[in-house]
Write the structure tokens for this entry.
Amino acid sequence: MTVAGALLLLPAAASALVAIIATDGHFRNAYASGAYLVAAVIFGYAALAIIRRWRGWRIWAGTIAWGLIALVVLNLFKPPPPPGIDTSFELPVVLVTITFAVFVLIAKRRERRPDFAAVFDG
């Protein structure tokens, strides 16, 4: 599960980078910058919760994984791009996103639950 948390730091870093870029240059958009900053905080906190096994880390892992799956499914219903736009990069991104989300869900399922009775029985 630590690998899933470490991999979740990648979207957090990418979101933070986009938030920084959205405030400079040609892409000045405060709403986009704020949205990506919020996404970076959510992904970062979820990654730390998963890596450190904080209380509620299973909820964070499941929510992030199912959220990514929902984003991919909702992306299927967007209007088609105008002619002449190259969409060849879209399929690998979708496949990597789905693969990562399924990996997190499987890793969460296979993670052993702690045995508190062994700790507190004396």
Remarks:
- The two ends are 30 Å apart (CA to CA).
- The first helix runs from residue 2 to 21.
- The chain has one domain: 2-112.
- The chain has a mean pLDDT of 85.
